Amino acid sequence: MNVPATREDLMIVNMGPHHPSMHGVLRLIVTLDGEDVIDCEPILGYLHRGMEKIAENRTIIQYLPYVTRWDYLATMFTEAITVNAPEQLGNIQVPKRASYIRVIMLELSRIASHLLWLGPFMADIGAQTPFFYIFRERELVYDLFEAATGMRMMHNYFRIGGVAADLPYGWIDKCLDFCDYFLTGVSEYQKLITRNPIFLERVEGVGIIGVEEAINWGLSGPMLRASGIQWDLRKVDRYECYDEFDWEVQWQKEGDSLSRYLVRIGEMVESIKIIQQALEGIPGGPYENLEIRCFDRVRNPELNDFDYRFISKKPSPTFELSKQELYVRVEAPKGELGVFLIGDQNVFPWRWKIRPPGFINLQILPQLVKRMKLADIMTILEVQDINSFSRLEYLKEVYGMIWVLVPIFTPVLGITIGVLAIVWLEREISAGIQQRIGPEYAGPLGILQALADGTKLLFKENLLPSRGDTRLFSIGPSIAVISILLSYLIIPFGSNLVLSDLNIGVFLWIAISSIAPIGLLMSGYGSNNKYSFLGGLRAAAQSISYEIPLTLCVLSISLRAIR
User: Fold this and answer.
1) In the chain, is it the N or the C terminus that has fewer CB atoms within a 10 Å radius of its CB?
2) Beta strands in 124-261 (DSSP E)
3) CA-angle at 103, arms to 102 and 109, nearest 5°
4) Cα(279)–Cα(347) distance, rounded to whole angstroms?
5) Dihedral angle, C-alpha 258, 263, 264, 268, nearest 10 °
6) pTM of the predicted structure, to 2 decimals
7) Are 381 and 400 in contact (CB under 8 A)?
8) DSSP annotation of 5
9) Which residues are CB-neighbours of 507 under 8 A, at least 6 positions away?
10) Which residues contact 73 (CB under 8 A, 6 or more apart)?
11) Each residue of 204-251: pLDDT tens digit?
């Protein structure tokens, strides 16, 4: 008898990218000592899009539709940083009405992002109800976006010098109604979540970040403000027209997961205050600076030049980026979103480097989860609001590999189709013999059932014993299967797969099919495991004890009836 040994070494566990809490873009290699986390290594690279190089080969207007894919939860902020960089580089003035509209859209996008953080965060720590509640308000925000921009998520609304279109008639009243409704919704969230004892047990005192740690790690956004630092780029840089509104920076001093939750809840309330003030004081005037919608210079097109190759097409409004460099940043929901831009007296940026907030904030994760419990990883990770990293890397060419894999996939596909055909035929024969309508009619002509059985057969795990007779263990199932297939060859079938004469070959069929238990016994003996051997004995005894006698009884009655 083998006595199982207790393992005392560390265990390495993969979390993600298919783990529900990883959202498909992150993998954590976690080293555990029981339930205690010893080490954690984040693995990135599951979101390759090459956005930076795309930007360096497009004009700003041509690139705007791409940027909403950086962070699909806060799309307005990616558009804002994309147009703010050339605006500052070219010293372009934005009309006051356009600036107010931008602020409104940015704060609505902040609310939508925080809501879609709150729902999955609560679901990952065990509370499902808020996940369904947040979609009420989020859909209202998207309704406002759709009315103003024509799109619910990928808006393409911001333009250099303003916005693409003015607010439609009645939009301001609808937005004010949403603000009044949303304040009651936030109060409902606070009553449901903030004082919940189970929630407090999961987040209070978990993942504490001190002031010096937050600064040294380069944290930003709610991660920074929850550690006692009142740093908000809307107050620091005074971009757009935020300095014209009365609002407060939300911050906490404890630095734990509860503080980061409270900061985001408070930011949604402050966003509503900013939106209400902007809606009530929005001025008239143009929504875009039309003076910049032209080329700065005219030149003679040269062969293979941009103007020459696309001269037959209407060029998009653009201008040359002056030969200088600058760094532009905005306060996104996850933190500081920045772009480092270098112009080269060309319509294309010479360098376009993106600073994603989620990627920078992720650096501190291994330090936070050490000496914590495994369940605390979800709390610490989700409260960082890392749903989409915007980690931008080069695209890899993979199309050439398809032709290399074709010769490999062709025989695999042939074998798969053969297995499906055999399974389908076995189902049809079995049902025809038993005169029943069985699972072989799942789908047209029973194809779905054969597909399910064949897939299960192909992907069934193949385990070989390490201390047994591998050859004997492998031959056993083959003997069982071959004997069954041989038994079908001697059955006299008539038309429509119906037995024509039961007197012919009945006992020979029983004799050949009785070889199958021998294969089962061989596999059980070759496994060198008493439980597998007992399983083989049981299967053989089952076949000998009642399957074969039952077949004889049925055949005897059938023969008697035929005579």
Assistant:
1) N
2) 158-159, 162-163
3) 90
4) 36
5) 140
6) 0.65
7) no
8) P
9) none
10) 112, 113, 116, 117, 333, 387, 388
11) 999 899 999 999 999 999 999 999 999 999 999 888 899 999 999 999
